[in-house]
Amino acid sequence: MTAFLEAVGEGLGTGSVYALLALGFVIIYKAMQVISFAQPAFMLAGIVLVSYLAESVNFWAAVPIAVAAVALLALAVERVAIRPMVGKAVFVIAIITLGVDVVVRVVAGAFIGVDPRSVGDPWGQEVVNVAGIDMAQRNVAALIAMVVVGGLLFAFFRFTPIGLAMRASALDQEAAMAQGVNVGTVFATSWALAGGLAAVAGVFAATGGPIDQNIWIVALAALPVIILGGLDSLGGAVLAGLLIGVVQAVVATYQRDWVPSLETNAGPIVPYLVMMLVLLVRPYGLFGTKEVERV
Amino acid sequence: MTTPTDEKTTSFSGHQLEETTRRPRRIWGRPGLVTAYAQDMAFFDTRAKLVAVCALVAIAALMPLQLEDDILKLLATGFVLAIGAIGLNLVTGYAGQVSLGHAFFVGVGAVTAAVLNGDPDGRRLGYGITFLPAWMLGAGLVAAVCGAIVAPLATRLRGLYLAIVTLGLVFIGQYIFAEWREGTGGRGVGRDAAVPTLGDVDLTVNGAYTEEQKLYWLMLVILVIFAVLARNLVRSKVGRAFAAVRDRDIAAGVMGVQLGRYKLLAFTISSFYAGVCGSLLYAADGHFSPDEFNLGMSVLFIAMILIGGAGTISGSIMGAMLLALLPRIASELPGFFPFISDRSTEHPNIFEVETALYGVLIIAFLLFEPRGLYGIWHRIRTYWKSFPFSY
């Protein structure tokens, strides 16, 4: 039972990272009905920035600076590569983000270098005892960060004028424009938010060890998460993120007992398997809106 | 000679019998006038195209006698990649189903060919089939079966949902490849690829001609065969159905195109091409590792068809050739831009530039020439065709 709960704790940490990433995907999707494949690159850029900044200033100052910088980067990408394509087929825009991802990731990855770098987080491998269960401090921190950021986002969409504008244009872009909403600003804000979220998620994905060149793969696991939660549901993204994180951790823990013949850790492919199973039953995810196709 | 008006009446009034018994004729002195659908859809719709393509193939066939072996190797790899790109173009460019899972099917092809061709007494699973068409088509068929298994899921989904599911396929595939050590050699280790032999001649051993020359000719012949097959497919009933599904699948369904059936067909054929591509891709290196069938490879194929031109066979080949030559182009860059290093320990180095370059190419082509290299060619052709009146 303890092992199971420890796995759940581990999963909540991973799941928080997924949830943060998934929120970014969903925000962009709601704004422009496009899945941005550039999120992994923004995440990697955030990690690399923090790892460099943490050397000169401390970790707590490095994270906000890096988040702001990646948000600016996302803003620039949106302006240069995405805005000219608004109105084209979503597939085309998605592929452009794929191109952006390749470019940004190569540039950011070049700064990782051969020496092991870390984000300089204060948690490392320390554990904290929560109600008799050992939880890694970094997982607790990720969960807290996710709850705080999620709450802030909720407040942002609920109480600020631009948040209202974003909700309005998610419902109906043209109607929002007719009401004086600047849809361009909405696009830009959504990209900046998504970039910032990816950077935050990256920091927590990279805690507890040296940065791995292939850490961006983690961000792709957020894609099954948003499919599971429903492409246009913020709450669904958080729930599905935590759910997939927990399932993944439980599978990784018990795989040896259940299927001893499998030697490779099946954890990384769990999100995709869960996604495929869910899609067979519910093609629009758990909380997604059914797409109405106009002929 | 009949007047143009008569020609027109016969071709549009639907007299099937008349059309089949009498071939539509070109009118002398008016090469641009098309009077029948069959003429419009002909394999070579103009004589100039026939001559140009024959000349191109002839030049390509003679090139090994002139070029260095290292370039020939790149070109041969380009030909194989072109087969895979044509496959992806059939499903994505023609049938409009975005697939990020092409690397998985290429992997299935490579593994199947290696297993079929492998040494029965070796460390890895092998059946010792040396007959080239047998293991090549076997690899294609196994990949096609995998495609047909995935297709039902794909027919339920559209657009970006499909892209993400096929993305998942790559990750699941990588896991299976890594786990099945008997067949694939396992992660980071790999196994020997299928060895192409014709009769008693091992094409990977230098003889009267070098290894590169022989492989180049082999790949060229296979590419021409598969390109012709694909071109014939897309100008048939099936190709028209693909295009209808791509342009508006609901409308196509209303018109009587069976959506499920044609999406299944598109995935199956595309996977077949991917499998054939995979079976030949590692012939020159002689070795492959299951790590190679990753998302990066899928994106590479997407880049090929977008840079070459989505929905064109010639574009697939152009895109594949460009991206196959890209490493070579990148390796020449330090000569022009001294800040680019050719050592992987320094930054920026040619490998990073190469990867970044194809990302930039994808973005630039989508922004400025969505029809790809084919579009550029089309523009040049139209300019000269309508020469003094081009604007």
Notes on the structure:
The complex is a heterodimer of chains A (295) and B (391). Chain A has 295 residues and is mainly α. Chain A has one domain. Chain A has 12 helices and 2 strands. Chain A has helices spanning 2-32, 39-56, 59-82, 90-110, 137-159, 161-171, 173-178, 183-205, 217-220, 222-229, 234-258, 270-281; strands at 127-130, 133-136. Chain A has a two-stranded antiparallel sheet with strand order 1-2. In chain B, the strands form 2 sheets. In chain B, strands 1-4 form a two-stranded antiparallel ribbon. A two-stranded antiparallel sheet of chain B has the order 2-3. In chain B, helix 5 (69-94) packs parallel to helix 10 (211-234), helix 5 (69-94) packs antiparallel against helix 13 (259-281) and helix 6 crosses helix 13 (259-281).
Largest interface: A-B, 45 and 43 residues
Radius of gyration of chain B: 23 Å
Largest beta sheet: strand ordering of chain B = 1-4
Q: H/E order of the elements of chain B? A: HHHHHHHHHEEEHHHHEHHHH
**Estimated share of beta-strand residues of chain B:** under 5%
In short:
Chain A has 295 residues and is mainly α. Chain A contains twelve helices and two strands.
SSE topology:
The complex is a heterodimer of chains A (295) and B (391).
Chain A: H1 2-32, H2 39-56, H3 59-82, H4 90-110, E1 127-130, E2 133-136, H5 137-159, H6 161-171, H7 173-178, H8 183-205, H9 217-220, H10 222-229, H11 234-258, H12 270-281
Helix pairs in contact in A: 1-5, 1-8, 1-10, 1-11, 2-3, 2-4, 2-8, 3-8, 5-6, 6-8, 10-11, 10-12
Chain B: H1 4-12, H2 16-21, H3 37-40, H4 47-62, H5 69-94, H6 102-117, H7 132-156, H8 159-179, H9 181-184, E1 191-192, E2 197-198, E3 201-202, H10 211-234, H11 237-247, H12 249-254, H13 259-281, E4 287-288, H14 295-308, H15 313-336, H16 350-368, H17 372-385
Antiparallel strand pairs in B: 1-4, 2-3
